[in-house]
Design goal:
This protein is an alpha/beta fold. The protein is built from 13 helices and 26 strands. It has four domains: 115 residues, Sandwich (Jelly Rolls); 72 residues, Glutaredoxin; 185 residues, 3-Layer(bba) Sandwich (FAD/NAD(P)-binding domain), CATH 3.50.50.60; 118 residues, 3-Layer(bba) Sandwich (FAD/NAD(P)-binding domain). A hairpin with a 5-residue loop joins strand 8 and strand 9. Helix 6 runs parallel beside helix 7. It is globular, with a radius of gyration of 25 Å. 49% of the residues are buried. The structure holds flavin-adenine dinucleotide. Flavin-adenine dinucleotide binds next to helix 6, helix 11 and helix 13.
């Protein structure tokens, strides 16, 4: 390992890592001991591990130079080998057997930190609150450890709320690792305070910028980075895309018992970073600027916060957005009882209660089966006369065999009621032929109505789309995934004619890389440096 690192020393008692602060990199202990401790939600320290000679410090964040999730001090004098993120990527690739062991350790350590909630933000608020669910979902989907303190059962949390959140709308509070307190923050504000957006990528020209970190974008990141291209992946919300919201993907090749979308995406996310891909999450691309590219300069992707990142080629992998039914009070109840996915967090919230699920596609079917294992009853509403035209036969059979799923055909959801503060209290649905309405006291509605392509950000760049807004590819350049703009590629659900499956998205993400190489080798392709 010596050829990948730089020798360094720490004197007795010297701080090596500090929670919430940037880390120098992974440390291989040559002599002495590095003592690692965590902080619980109440600010008390607890022991994590002592790294002695021959052991190494670090977890997944070391792949990308993220802020530390733990504290560490030198016990006695310490001699160590410092391996910074770039050196770590080189080591993982050059030394496959050793790299596998290190990668496994980094992943398992992050999992342990997530399980104990060590090092990330502490949320203070009611477990049943919609805003708590919103923030927990965001953190979980991004693999960030966090802890929830509910004032209902925790006197310290109650005292904290009295001090920092005099008004109900200030809740939940988020206490960041640096001690700052945010009141009912947006996902973006929370991301900033925990260092997710430390590296903006604005200072260089990447070979490829990928908009969207769903399965398609992550596949491009893994293949492009492993083939030596510099890659930046940007996602508005979290890695995994729609697949990250899937409780169980049963038809992805090689996983006979199924795999949760979050687990699949988490592996791809780590894999892409292992090969050196940079991640900018959460950051929304609001505009693609193609003007300079037409003159041989790089493309610019404008972000919602005003920054721009530049690249020689662009991959559109922004997937699709959930459709919303025409239903009174929907907007007000989103995140307050109305959900567009069904993860274990939502399943726990509706345990033992009746829920409504709207939609008749395969994802609706999977969610109904998943929720039925937790909820007292799942009312499944579909507009069609049956499920045959929209759902796979195996799912129809499975649903028919589950006693607590009640299917209502020719039925649409018509009204959601409840106060904004505490959320949904009752749901009304209507039969499309008889117009007869039924209202039940239900606090959770799951909407699985399919999705429309996300392409608004492309309008200034004249990327050709079809009549439904999906991006057209195969422009005659011989590259089947290239759009009407040379150097701009489209993959996955956003692409016209794509199969709308995880396997298809990943295949296209991989295939795009060979076509990007071909584009970059073309005379007149954007220059390596701006
Ligand atoms: C609940 C559910 C269950 C499913 N189950 C299965 C299954 O069992 N098997 C199967 O094969 N398929 C399944 N699918 C379909 C599968 O998930 C999709 O086909 C796949 O995720 C498409 O991948 P993608 O990368 O093209 O797009 P997406 O997964 O949609 O990812 C797009 C990403 O782009 C980001 N983004 C969008 N706009 C912007 C912007 N302007 N700036 C930055 N980022 C942006 C989004 O945040 C998102 O992360 C399921 C889908 C859902 C919703």
């Amino acid at each position: 390992m010596r050829r990948f690192g730089t020798p360094c020393r720490y004197s007795a008692g010297e701080r090596v890592y500090e929670t919430g602060k940037p880390t120098p990199g992974l440390l291989v202990v040559l002599s002495g001991t590095i003592r690692v401790t965590g902080r619980d939600g109440h600010g008390h320290d607890f022991p994590v591990v002592d790294h002695v000679a021959g052991a190494f410090s670090g977890e997944l964040g070391q792949l990308s130079g993220r802020r530390s999730l733990v504290d560490a001090v030198a016990v006695g004098g310490v001699e160590a080998l410092l391996i910074n993120p770039e050196q770590l990527h080189a080591l993982l690739i050059a030394e496959a057997a050793l790299g596998e062991k290190i990668m496994r350790a980094l992943i398992l350590r992050r999992v342990a930190l997530i399980e104990t909630g060590t090092g990330g933000p502490v949320l203070v608020g009611a477990a049943s609150s919609g805003d708590v669910a919103r923030l927990r979902n965001f953190l979980s989907r991004n693999g960030i450890p966090h802890m929830l303190l509910d004032p209902a059962g925790d006197p310290d949390a109650r005292a904290f709320v009295e001090r920092y959140a005099p008004r109900a709308e200030d809740l939940p509070l988020a206490v960041c690792p640096d001690g700052s307190v945010l009141r009912n923050p947006s996902e973006n504000a929370l991301a900033k305070c925990i260092g997710m957006l430390d590296a903006s990528g604005a200072d260089r020209v990447y070979d490829v910028a990928v908009a969207g970190a769903g399965p398609a974008g992550l596949a491009t990141a893994v293949y492009a980075a492993s083939e030596g291209l510099s890659v930046l992946v940007i996602d508005a919300r979290s890695y995994g895309g729609q697949a990250g919201a899937s409780a169980r993907i049963e038809n992805y090749l090689g996983f006979p018992t199924g795999i949760s979308g979050q687990a699949l995406a988490g592996r791809a996310y780590s894999q892409a970073q292992k090969f050196g891909a940079s991640m900018l999450i959460p950051a929304e691309v609001v505009r693609l600027d193609c003007e300079r590219a037409a003159d041989g300069g790089p493309f610019a992707l404008r972000l919602a916060d005003g920054l721009a990142v530049r690249s020689r080629a662009v991959v559109i992998a922004t997937g699709a957005r959930y459709r919303r039914p025409d239903c009174a009070n929907l907007k007000a109840m989103e995140g307050r009882g109305v959900w567009y996915w069904a993860s274990p967090i939502e399943a726990k919230m509706c345990a033992g209660q009746e829920v409504v699920l709207v939609g008749g596609g395969n994802s609706a079917g999977q969610a109904a089966v998943f929720l039925a294992a937790h909820a007292a009853k799942v009312w499944m509403l579909v507009r069609a006369a049956d499920l045959a035209a929209s759902m796979s036969k195996y799912l129809i059979d499975r649903i028919a065999g589950i006693a607590n799923i009640e299917l209502r055909t020719r039925t649409e959801i018509s009204c959601l009621s409840g106060p904004r503060e505490s959320g949904l209290e009752s749901v009304t649905w209507r039969h499309r032929d008889t117009k007869q309405e039924e209202t039940r006291p239900i606090r959770h509605v799951f909407l699985f109505l399919g999705a429309d392509p996300i392409t608004e950000w492309l309008k200034d760049c004249d990327v050709a789309v079809d009549d439904k807004g999906f991006v057209k590819t195969g422009n005659g350049s011989g590259q089947p995934l290239e759009t009407s703009v040379p150097g701009v590629f489209a993959i996955g659900d956003v692409r016209a004619g794509s199969v709308k499956r995880v396997g298809g998205a990943i295949g296209e993400g991989a295939a795009a890389v060979a076509q990007i190489h071909a584009f970059l080798a073309r005379p007149g392709a954007t220059a390596a440096q701006a």
